Amino acid sequence: xxxxxxxxxxxxxxxxxxxxxxxxxxxxxxxLALLESVLTTAWKNVAxxxxxxxxxx
Length: 57
Known about the structure:
Elements: H1 2-5, E1 10-12, H2 16-19, E2 23-25, H3 32-46, H4 49-56
Antiparallel strand pairs: 1-2
């Protein structure tokens, strides 16, 4: 969704890795809010579920 919303700033990596969700962020074009959103979303996608549940409490 982020790639679709910000196609000039966030792009999938070419090839198979990009199809799995790996992305490139042009930091010169991204504002702080977008960087925070991208990094938080990426972290939540790989963080252990037990850690995520502790943070939600």
